[in-house]
Amino acid sequence: MDAFYASVEQRDHPELRGRPVAVGGARERGVVAAASYEARQFGVRSAMPSATALRKCPELVFVPPRFAAYKEVSRQIRAIFAEYTPLIEPVSLDEAYLDVTLNLKQMDSATQIAREIRARILAETGLTASAGISYNKFLAKLASDYRKPNGQFVVRPAQGLAFVEGLAVGQFHGVGPVTAARMNELGIFTGADLRAQTVAFLHQHFGKVGRYYFAIARGEDERPVVADRLRKSMGSETTFGQDLHEFADLLEALQPLLEDVWEYCQRSGIRGRTVTLKVKFGDFQQITRSRSGVGLVPGPEVLARICRELVEGLFPLEKGVRLLGVTLSNLSNAQEGAGRQLTLSF
């Protein structure tokens, strides 16, 4: 989807259309969750501090996020996908991979399928989407960004290698800013530069993921589209307007995070064995504290108790807390783990 959160807000609030919009908090420590294309023209990007965004675009309009609305639109879009293929791998609320090799409408052209899905999304939600079509996930992901907004791009098998070699490594999905900078230090700036390296060289400098870099530099990606993929973790976090120092204040701030995590558990039927508390202090030092059990966390009361004990372990505090986060990991279906849920060794 194109600028998904911001586009939903502009759709639902006509007075925002054509204006630079950021979804997120306008407070001093707020962060941009999404930016409209009008805001992006000023250099405003997601994950940017709100103060920085306002300096770049003084006319920027901040809108608080409405995740319930975004989830509802996401469900509409997934329903459209499901009319074309059962092989849908969600990546986030606004992105998914679809394998349409054998599609439910028996259409011969993936390009036509993408065009029809995009038209359906626009007609039914009033929002635009972009698509990438190719013979593997890596190339489809790259192609999806190539004609944004409201466009699509095809990378055919005969074009894959040439398409990759001309791109900067920072554009590759799976190569973040830190890794891209490291590659640049090694003289690797483009896909062609990356393809010139041996597996041994890439493994030496990047570890196990080096083999993945070796493959994608050749336009190769064997990962299948996996429907109903189980998430590795689920979590929620928040940044405070002012640093917190008191135990009671931290517990109060923890409550909405616990509710977010457990709401996902209830909706999905998924439970977790490991509870992790993320803490960022006022000086930006970040730590995590985790606790795992042999059984699944059975309910919100147990989750709250574990998190309370993890918070207690932080005291006495030497400095204020800027951010708190709660994550559940080691996930599995609640029914699969039902026989072990009652035994918790923490």
UniProtKB/TrEMBL annotation:
Mg(2+) binds at D94. GO terms for molecular function: DNA-directed DNA polymerase activity. Poorly processive, error-prone DNA polymerase involved in untargeted mutagenesis. Copies undamaged DNA at stalled replication forks, which arise in vivo from mismatched or misaligned primer ends. These misaligned primers can be extended by PolIV. Exhibits no 3'-5' exonuclease (proofreading) activity. May be involved in translesional synthesis, in conjunction with the beta clamp from PolIII. Its main location: cytoplasm. Binds 2 magnesium ions per subunit. Keywords: Cytoplasm, DNA damage, DNA repair, DNA replication, DNA-binding, DNA-directed DNA polymerase, Magnesium, Metal-binding, Mutator protein, Nucleotidyltransferase, Transferase. Its cofactor is Mg(2+). This is DNA polymerase IV. It is found in: Cytoplasm. The keyword Disulfide bond does not apply. Monomer. It holds the Pfam family IMS. It comes from Hymenobacter artigasi. The active site is at E95. Residues 1-176 form the UmuC domain. Belongs to the DNA polymerase type-Y family. It is an enzyme of class 2 (transferase). The record marks Y5 as: Substrate discrimination.
